[in-house]
Amino acid sequence: MNASMLSYILFSCLLLSVQAQNCTVRDIIRYTKYLLEESSVSCPCRETAVSSCTCLPIAEPGHELACFVEGTDHMLKNNISSKAVIARLNLSFQIQLGRNLCKSLARGDQCQYKTKGNVKEFLNKILRTYQTIHK
Question: How far does the signal peptide extend, from start to end residue (predicted)?
């Protein structure tokens, strides 16, 4: 193996490690803030109560991406406004989960949660999660 081949391999490894940390944080924060401004849904979400409130999973640490995919899927299916923005978020989460881009948010591909929240609580969870990464 010559020096140019070794440098190529090292450069490729460097690119892959940088790409593995690519969580497209800024776009997700921007889209989430937009949805929070648009959302007027602040109804209480109680798992035991029957209500018209949309209840979405509030992820346990390490399972955020799977829950974000599940929650945005649910939002798309239930005709919540701003479908184009929700679809972009959903696709971003699917890509990050599928390509294992945000390892700290995807220790598994199953959504694990102890509580559910309304749309605003769910969006705030997304926002806080990605703002923490962005720091």
Answer: 1-20
Task: Give the CA distances from residue 55 to residues 9, 14, 21, 129, in Å, rounded to whole numbers and listed in that order.
Answer: 47, 41, 30, 19
CB 101 within 8 A of CB 95: yes
Tokens of 47: 């798992």
Answer whether 118's CB lies under 8 Å from 53's CB. yes
Distance CA 83, CA 38 (A): 12
- Long-range contact list for 18-21, CB < 8 A, 24+ apart? 19/101, 20/100, 20/101, 20/103, 21/101, 21/102
CA pair distance 124, 59, nearest whole angstrom: 12
Measured CA to CA, the distance from residue 65 to residue 49 in angstroms comes to 27
Closest listed residue to residue 80, CA positions, set 48, 27, 25, 120: 120
Residue 17: is its pLDDT beyond 70? no
Q: Is the Cα dihedral 135, 34, 18, 71 positive or negative? A: positive
pLDDT digits (tens, 9 = 90+) for 36-63: 988 766 677 765 555 567 889 999 998 9
What's this model's pTM, rounded to 2 decimal places? 0.77
